[in-house]
Structure of NADH-quinone oxidoreductase subunit F:
Amino acid sequence: MTTTLTPVLTANWDRADAFTLDGYGEYESAKRALGMDPDAIIKAVKDSGLRGRGGAGFPTGMKWGFIPQGDGKAHYLVVNADESEPGTCKDIPLMMANPHALVEGVIITAYAIRANHAFIYVRGEVLHVIRRVQAAVREAYEKGYLGTDIFGSGFDLEVVVHSGAGAYICGEETALLDSLEGFRGQPRLKPPFPAVAGLYACPTVVNNVESIASVPSIIANGADWFASMGTEKSKGFGIFSLSGHVTRPGQYEAPLGITLRELLDMAGGIRAGHRLKFWTPGGSSTPIFTDEHLDVPLDFESVGAKGSMLGTRALQIFDETTCVVRAVLRWTEFYAHESCGKCTPCREGTYWLKQVLRRLEKGQGTEDDLTTITDIADNILGRSFCALGDGATSPIHSSVKHFRDEYLKHFEIGGCPFDHAASTVWGKA
């Protein structure tokens, strides 16, 4: 059993001053990086195998390499800190406890892609996080780590912390760019991709908080050190967020490829007297798993091979007291509310999924409604403008696949079986 955690980003979280420069350090990785050739930094990140920690898992170094050089245009770095996926809770605590890892990563990344302006786009509701990141940026400016001629290298960098307005759609990188430019946050048609025409129609790299914060450790310890952890194709470490019906919920930083069984052992298991029923490997927009998937390695390839996605490694744990239909309804209500309305499949599809699921959860539907919701989901999947629509279909398809009997039980008793305390037909006392 793997019991070894890899505290890198979380190494100083137990310090009272972790969020300050005194608790973090003197940006030694940035000093080293600014003495390197920018292309050598990109190569190091490529060689490390770091893949995007925001959900898609795209190779980070490859994304940086897409930025055209010598084009005469301004280049921009945008950090996607608009964490809003239900169940995902890694970037916000990271920015609260260790914001300087992010700021140092921003310096290194901006230098590598030849950008002199960087933006950290933070979800508007988390005011305490915005203030924490602003304070870290201010400290860095005061120490001369940001601004002009950083570390005497001749490199200039201005960093802006931007507050979003709390729209889930702005977690999609092109919608985030529109919002950053002052427009309504809606996804753009691609191509062109942000690497060619992003912020202000200039080459732009958009990366997740954890992706950028991982860069200083790669520069400090080397690409081989990072690549030695994880699996062959999913290298390195990541923050796994355990929430829900678990004894010790929290952030567990471990190599990719660890299993939920191993994480649960470290987290004290499912809450006392209960058993695992279903869980999400990467937030609510990933197909759900059951207790049959406890030993699936949590890396991009293994999770994908079993029919789900690693996503943001948001492990929401549900025990046998949870109604699957109700949980899926709640998620669907969220997606219907957060749909930007730009494309018909998502705008109309999520609305009707919500309506039918409400009827199903109350026990007022029929078995034909299961066909209806899967048909609606089929017509959204692959046809929506961005990934929000696709994500909304994941709980639908997977819950019907794994828990069809539970849907049928709602029809049989004319309501939710978990609302009937005296019901014994559903295995309840």
